Amino acid sequence: MTDNAVVLNEHTTNEQAQAETHPACRFSIAPMLDWTDRHCRYFHRLLSGHTQLYTEMVTTGAIIHGKGDYLAYNEEEHPLVLQLGGSNPAELAHCAKLAQERGYDEVNINVGCPSDRVQNGRFGACLMGEAELVAQGVAAMREVVDIPVSVKTRIGIDDQDSYEFLTDFIGIVSEKGGCKDFTIHARKAWLSGLSPKENREIPPLDYPRVYQLKRDFPHLTMAINGGVKTMEEIEAHLQHMDGVMVGREAYQNPYLLAEIDQRLFGSSDPVKKRREIVEAMYPYIERQLAEGTYLNHVTRHMLGLFQNMPGARQWRRHISENAHKPGSGIEVLEQALAKIPAHLDV
């Protein structure tokens, strides 16, 4: 057997393993820089057992050269995807291998973030203009791991926003890179002139374009992202797509996740009440406090739990004003919970 044949066999084995272990993910939460930490993910996992969670984007440089442990997570977080920022195929492959060794369920390349800092590092949305390089990165990762390798991207960048540009990108990355899984943010990105926040709001959403992309690439697994806020919208998108990714709404109104298991995954478990979720966080918070974590590092992710409910403002205010204080503990949450009217079955 030739060396080429050995490589081909290994690659085929990887493809088979990836296909067998990665059913289409119906629902996931978008990673958000400086927000989607392990405390946030633990909290989200309490709300939904089936939702696919992502880490915030971690650069390959941070993983390879940084002093901290950028791959740390709680075992309860699975299924969990590591999102990487980078463009060097060898570095991406190295980090993907580390991710598999640490037990991550999938590795994702960020080809959607438009911030200046990300562009300067030659990753994020600017990579839409370098489809061949993205394909090389995906191929390099797939050579060394059995877990799925996916790409999260936009529908275009700057004036390169034609449907042909988008299909060329998807075609090159899927055919030359072997990528089978894509999440498409249904907005283009402006690489200059707009902040990351503005890039999430100003470029118009184009859901029909993403639906058409799925029709034109039926063999690929595709999820849609951008502007999704309600369960009804999620279910409507699933009439056209394999999956839906929700971003800001999951952070601002996390109780949206409470019905996901029942509505999308057929769970027969009762929907958890908000009070139950708060109390279920207590043991985790106690462990984190014992390890030196500040209370507000965990509770900041819980502020929106009672959104649109009586007492929600008092809940948020009490936590915001007290969780940062030295020595703050579970009593802050207990006091905040007492601000919610007792007669409400929440």
TrEMBL record:
The keyword RNA-binding applies. The record marks 110, 197, 200, 313, 316 as: Interacts with tRNA. It catalyses: 5,6-dihydrouridine(20) in tRNA + NADP(+) = uridine(20) in tRNA + NADPH + H(+); 5,6-dihydrouridine(20) in tRNA + NAD(+) = uridine(20) in tRNA + NADH + H(+); 5,6-dihydrouridine(20a) in tRNA + NADP(+) = uridine(20a) in tRNA + NADPH + H(+); 5,6-dihydrouridine(20a) in tRNA + NAD(+) = uridine(20a) in tRNA + NADH + H(+). The keyword Thylakoid does not apply. Residues 29-337 form the DUS-like FMN-binding domain. GO terms for molecular function: flavin adenine dinucleotide binding; FMN binding; tRNA binding; tRNA-dihydrouridine20 synthase activity; tRNA-dihydrouridine20a synthase activity. The active site is at 113 (proton donor). FMN binds at residues 31-33, 83, 152, 185, 225-227, 247-248. Its EC number is 1.3.1.91. Keywords: Flavoprotein, FMN, NADP, Nucleotide-binding, Oxidoreductase, RNA-binding, tRNA processing, tRNA-binding. It is an enzyme of class 1 (oxidoreductase). Signal peptide: none annotated. Its cofactor is FMN. InterPro entries: Aldolase_TIM, DUS-like_FMN-bd, DUS_fam, DusA, tRNA_hU_synthase_CS. Catalyzes the synthesis of 5,6-dihydrouridine (D), a modified base found in the D-loop of most tRNAs, via the reduction of the C5-C6 double bond in target uridines. Specifically modifies U20 and U20a in tRNAs. Belongs to the dus family. Belongs to the Dus family. DusA subfamily. This is tRNA-dihydrouridine(20/20a) synthase.
